[in-house]
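Researcher: Here's the sequence for the chain we discussed earlier.
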Amino acid sequence: MIASSPLKYTVPMKKLNILFALLLILSASSCKDFLNVEPSNSSDSETSIQTAADAKVIINGLMRRMTDFDYYGRNFIMYGDAKGGDLTIFSQGRGLDGLYTFNHSATTGSYSGFWFQIYHSILQTNSLLESIENIEAEGTDQNFDDYKGQALTARALMYFDLVRLYGKAYNDDKSSYGVPNITEPLDASAQPLRASVEENYQQILQDLKAAAPLLSKSKSNGYINYYTNLAMQARVYLYMENYSAALSAAEEIIDDGPYDLYTNGEWVNSWATQFGKESIFELAIYPSEADLGTASLGFYLRRLSHGSSNAMGWFMASDYFLNRLGEDDNDVRWGVMSYDESSNTRFGSCYKYSGNVELEGDGKATATAVNIKVIRLSEIYLIAAEAAFHSNKGLAADYLNAIRKRSPDLDPATASSISIDMILDERSKELFAEGHRFFDMIRLNKTITYNDDFGGIAVSQREKTIDRSFNKTILPISQGEINANPGLEAQQNPGY
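Model: Thanks. This is the structure I predict for it:
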């Protein structure tokens, strides 16, 4: 058991000032009306917001930051499927190989951009929350509830992602190190200690529960609403194996939310649609803002040279995933797949983030400015199926079949045939290239097998199969962070 740690995370003042300067510059570049204010931790700083309109501008900036290539814009989603065995590589040296080969150390291949980018966004969130608290304490006739709820829910999502990257699974060792809990603007005199995994989850749930009653129940394209919050609760409770709470949250969305599942005939075209009827939380990407172009998810998943000589064919579906999807040749999800560079009969290239296989995007001027669907109703049905499995297998089968019907030639699940592996396989097929597979395999303590022999890929940093006992299933704290915050050295993850 590690010692309980304070709820503040500290970096040296020099690094702190750089971080806040970057925060202001980058936020200003994404929102032309962003307020030019001093860091909220400086002794003579003024309130960073004064009106609800100001708060909305900062929320806009936060949503923009979450689409950075070091977060949902690319790398975080690639992390989940490359490490989870659903993606493989045809050739080494094209980029992001380390996610597949596990070539990580504290000094090279640490993927420290996750740490920096997500904490950067958390700092912005904390400053907004403190400003709202100060304004409300002084008395105001403006209503900040929705912005406070969005900020708290976003912070919960970011901590959930951080603790999955840097900490063990909750049901593996919740007393082990997670990540520093930062819940207020940074104090340069505080000590940089990591909280435990359990403390991180407690903070996540605290934020979600505080936020829920503040949020609107109406659809809010590109923003967080009440049902986004419930969806996050369902996810978190599933990872904690609190199945009754996960099922309750999922069922409220299914029964009461303003969302509907796509029919089989609608599913493929949904990827060329912005803010469709399944989209619970979707990050907007526009050609003039957040479009990563040749560095986008769409480019990283399409086949070599398709539509551009800059398309390098970085990743393709593994044999294991294709065999899973291939259980039904009429599975509608084949509609976002196309052939890869290995042959014109192997459909290993994914086009979810290109809109479709014709590279038409989702209605914008460029095919790379495709919105990122962070939480979809399909996932909520799959959460409900897994959560219900532990108490009511018939109900679990009903929820699973709502998604399994996308493979029309497969027999429906029944109370006697349904299994966790069947649910896990369906999650793989439905949520392919959406960043879930690795985390699912680790939380369920499954063995992951990699398609290393597909192209004769040489991998020396891991075995062909791993389980969660392998130390590199969590990332190292980068040496740069340790140099800036020496207290982290004693809290480095094992094996690094």
